[in-house]
Amino acid sequence: MIRIGMLITSAVLLSACSTSNSDGSNSADNHSENYGYHYQCSDDKTFQADYLIEERGALVNVDGEDYALVQVPAGSGTRYMLPEFAQTEVAPINLYTKGDYARLEYGLDVFINCVNQ
Fold this sequence. Notes:
The protein is an alpha+beta fold. The chain has a single domain (2-19, 35-116), classed as Lipocalin (Beta Barrel), CATH 2.40.128. The protein has helices spanning 2-15, 31-34; strands spanning 37-40, 46-52, 57-62, 65-72, 78-81, 93-98, 101-106, 109-116. A hairpin with a 4-residue loop joins strand 2 (46-52) and strand 3. The chain starts with a helix and ends with a strand.
């Protein structure tokens, strides 16, 4: 039952990534502008995110690639992760947030000391 809920949530999150503009162009072409949060991290790493409160998920853009993450229980702050059934070349993907601060685990690469700009 939980898997079905995660599948539906991921489908809703991913549908937000592929909308078209009124001029017919794909909004993913300018996707970094479509995200509400722009994080600057140590080692000049950056990523963008949007949080979907009702869907309990996050849309994350790293190196031009979009990922739909689902919210999972966290001890402090908020944690989002890539669903286990997601088909992607990068895994795991985990996002930890608290206030304006974030930490992103992107495969073997870890984005630390990230602050929303």
